[in-house]
């Protein structure tokens, strides 16, 4: 049991560190301290995220493979559907960004000046506000349904909770940057999953 508590603790620490380093106030602090070197902040941020994520996943795979139910091909089929749909969603969403800026290989003015960016509402952003997170959630729960392991369930739950919390703080930054334009966008476009049913306008 202690090993699973430690897994949850690792995810909690990862989420806190990831959010703190993405905070505008913290980024401004490092901008003042790093000077010209701040152009590498996003690259360092992403590199640290990847290394820590790899460490947590390595620890997770070292835990016992404790199954929560016996194999069922129908559940496995659903898991694979969610898993690959999520992966495809992430890939399509990322393709809409400048990958060099997204990864930190090139410096973006938005990393140092709020309000310098452009609010994007094209592609998958027409249907959900955070398609990368949508794909991530589908992927991790698809993984869980595919292997039915307790360790995967805990990881999927931790990632989902962190994602929902992270979206709240991310949207505060987006409102601060884009103002009423983002508020209007938020009122009309769902957060994670597209609307299936639409209310008909009154005649």
Topology of this structure?
Blueprint: H1 2-22, H2 24-34, H3 41-62, H4 73-95, H5 99-103, H6 131-147, H7 150-178, H8 180-188
Give a concise summary.
The protein is mainly α and 203 residues long. The protein has helices at 2-22, 24-34, 41-62, 73-95, 99-103, 131-147, 150-178, 180-188.
Features:
Four Helix Bundle (Hemerythrin (Met), subunit A); mainly alpha; globular; 203 residues; 8 helices
Largest sheet: none
Q: Specify the number of helices.
A: 8
Oligomer: single chain
- Whole-number count of domains: 1
Distance between the termini: 59 Å
**Given the C-alpha coordinates, what overall shape results?**
globular
Structure description:
This protein has 203 residues and is an all-alpha fold. 67% of the residues lie in helices and 0% in strands. 14% of the residues are buried.
């Amino acid at each position: 049991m202690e090993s699973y508590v430690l897994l949850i603790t690792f995810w909690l620490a990862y989420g806190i560190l990831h959010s703190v380093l993405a905070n505008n106030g913290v980024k401004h602090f490092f901008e003042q301290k790093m000077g010209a070197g701040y152009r590498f902040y996003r690259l360092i941020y992403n590199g640290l995220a990847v290394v820590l994520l790899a460490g947590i996943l390595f620890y997770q795979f070292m835990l016992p493979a404790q199954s929560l139910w016996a194999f069922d091909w129908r559940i496995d089929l659903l898991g694979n559907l969610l898993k690959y749909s999520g992966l495809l969603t992430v890939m399509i969403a990322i393709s809409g960004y400048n990958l060099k800026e997204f990864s930190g290989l090139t410096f973006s003015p938005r990393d140092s000046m709020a309000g310098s960016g452009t609010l994007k509402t094209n592609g998958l952003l027409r249907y959900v506000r955070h398609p990368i997170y949508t794909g991530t959630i589908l992927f991790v729960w698809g993984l869980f349904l595919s292997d039915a392991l307790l360790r995967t369930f805990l990881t999927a739950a931790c990632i989902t909770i962190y994602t929902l919390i992270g979206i709240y703080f991310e949207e505060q930054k987006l409102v601060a940057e884009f103002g009423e334009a983002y508020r209007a966008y938020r009122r009309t476009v769902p957060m994670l999953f597209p609307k299936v049913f639409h209310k008909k306008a009154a005649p």
